[in-house]
């Protein structure tokens, strides 16, 4: 306005007149058929010198008076913009939660099916084995069951903080602090939950064989409709970069001002490796996850420093570091999720329930030690007195133990039977003819 940049603002723009004709300067186009979510229309819009009334400005946080004066309660254009788009953070929070719900549907369908579907038998047996009895089948499903429970716990924490934020007045100083923290958390949760969901649903689909392809059994449809989650509300890798910048900013303040934020408070505690190492000990798990994040944090700072000295272009220097900083962001969220989960387990009063939930936390941690590129790339497990065979065998024993309580753990999802794929309760072709009676045969 009057030669001064006031930043990005949102407006309501009418596309068509009362006769349904597009206004002059407005062009629209349909995006056509998509991989999934075809019930939702998507289109493109172009505007060429389209004029709109002043009243079409979304003016909750900034406005223009009749006299042409720009008014706002905030002290900068950036603050107006970030506050205005703050509601979009809710989209990331929601996608994180929906991703976990879709995982639950896929996992419960696939695991229940594996208790009924029989395939092959030993020469000494006349009865074929259930799929769930095969260790390889357990390893294809139970690690995702574990991550669903672990990620679900921290998602509740993020949702609770987001609800508290929505109840605050935007002018409240606490609002800006919470807005930044929720943006940080959602920029981590959305990528990690949606990625885990995508991998989980594909594994569930494969574990159901040909039945997993049938639309009636829901898993294939979920894969189609949730693939867009990976790019909804921002590309996952871009979101992780935003979160990483905050971690590095906190680390810089910690190093220069000796002020440590809650995000990296573990840096104040130089814990020693538990001795002797017990692969099922939660203290060892948390220590290992802290070691990974500490190392990735130091390596990221070191690489950024080197890149900046080698290039005068800060943008180019940062891009060279993104693969490493992405691992840092992932390690941070997984550590926070594991800590939240173990804290939640400590509040469980019923021993039998606590035991089953503890096994899931143990499997989550050990599966990361077994599969995570950052763990495998930067750590020598021999230094921790761990053998890869020992790690593998412990995971196998955990999966076998989880099998004994897996139905109880699935019940914990609280999913109504009619929302699951019919193969969760029927074998083969029967699933297609008995869906209406599913609840009676649960």
**SS field, number of helical segments:** 12
Strand order, biggest sheet? 1-2
Rounded to an integer in angstroms, the radius of gyration calculated over CA atoms is: 26 Å
User: What share of residues are in beta strands?
Assistant: under 5%
Mean pLDDT: 89
One letter per element, helices H and strands E, the order comes to EEEEHHHHHHHHHHHH
Number of strands: 4
How far apart, in Å, are the first and last alpha carbons? 65 Å
> Spans with pLDDT under 50 lasting ≥5 residues?
431-442
Helix content: 55-70%
Largest sheet: 2 strands, antiparallel
Helix and strand content put the structural class at mainly alpha
Shape: globular
Question: How would you describe this structure to a colleague?
Answer:
This protein is mainly α and about 450 residues long. It is about 55% helix and about 5% strand. The strands form 2 sheets. It has a two-stranded antiparallel ribbon with strand order 1-2. It has a two-stranded antiparallel ribbon with strand order 3-4. The N and C termini lie far apart (about 65 Å).
